[in-house]
Amino acid sequence: MTRPITAGIDGTEESLAALTWAAREAVRRGLPLRVVHAWRFEAGDAVDVGDRATQERWVRDSVGGAARTVRERHPELDVTTDVLEGDAVETLTGVAADAEMLVLGSRGHGPIMGFLVGSVGQQVIVGAGRPVVFVRAGDRPSNEVAGHEIVVGQQGDPEDSAAALAFAFETASRRGATVRAVRAWTLPPVFAYSPASLQLLDEAGGLEPYERKALAAALAPWRERYPGVHVVEHVEMGSAGQVLLSVAGTAQLMVVGRRARRTAVGARIGSVAHGVLHHAGCPVAVVPPA
User: Which parts of the sequence belong to the UspA domain (predicted)?
Assistant: First the structure.
């Protein structure tokens, strides 16, 4: 089954930027584009917002207009639209299941807005079984130029980041881009309390050679599968979020794995994804485990 790239739109500038990004990616991958709007009838008293039929017509006209703009820019692209009545989280999570990826707008630097009000964005990330890409209003095709890399975070053992690496290499191969694979590391707490252990570690050459070896092992199968993709191995001491953000200025896309969980007070995403979603200026892809 051919999975479409699905863009969720709600009329905001951010979501229309996400639609534009999704259309370009669909053309590159030779996939259809599905445009989805999650709609719920809003009754009003003080302000005339129209009846159910009127609101639905407004929504369908808006979605249809956005789709026409995409078709004019990409006449070769197969574009379909859906206006689905229901809860935004359930709708977006549901359409993600049938998509190659779900693309949404994001404001960052604060709560994720548009479709993603309050905890909605986190719930979509936690519930989606496919990659979710967040795009800012200022994103432009000119960002996807030579010298702007696909940056991907790698943590743990090779299998821990396999899905994120697969997404990054596939995207880079379509764009002719470089992959910058970032592995951040910190000293285990034991060394803070044991100067003698730290001295032995220094004499052995430190932890960085081990971290470089771990990153190389994780990248090996993807280098073999995508021999034409240039790779930069980036190992740096520091928190993963800070190290990734330090190289975000030359990134055309940031790819991170999903470290998400549900708690008694709602869905929570990992600190790394949380940090880059709010502070990276480029689009960010959050990829669930394989």
Answer: 1-136, 150-288
